[in-house]
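LAG3 protein, pasting as requested.
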Amino acid sequence: MKPRVSLQDPTLRNGNFSLRIDPVRSEDVGLYEAWVKYNTEVHSCHVELGVITVTLSPPNPVIENELLLMSCNSSHRASLVETCWFHNEHLGPTSRTFCSFSGALSILHPALSDAGSWRCQLQYSDKEIISATYNLQILGFDGPTNPVVYAAAGSAAN
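Structure tokens follow.
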């Protein structure tokens, strides 16, 4: 897993033997075990790492008005009950929420207003709730509403 994995060396002296994985990948899912020997004592701990992934079809950045499918999946083993997507939470009147029984969200004609923070929240039959945030980029034309631009002869026009 090198070079994505590191020990937090400065904190080892304080009893913190954390492992850092950056970036986390889907194949990193599983049970991790740590053993630390200090003098004659041996300490161990087990941590299970679950992963949630957000995928786009087509991949980011998305082109304005092209069909977009956003999917959200997790390594959690229970049955998926509901998926909710939140767009620009806490940003006032532009915030939106979509809920369904699958992990996917289709946007038929994505617009520049669809760009920004999207959070998918997965709720499972064992009451576990898992979420991930994704920053969606939309490529499009953000020009004047009137497509006619006037410029003086001899000057530059943008």
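Note for the archive: The two ends are 49 Å apart (CA to CA).
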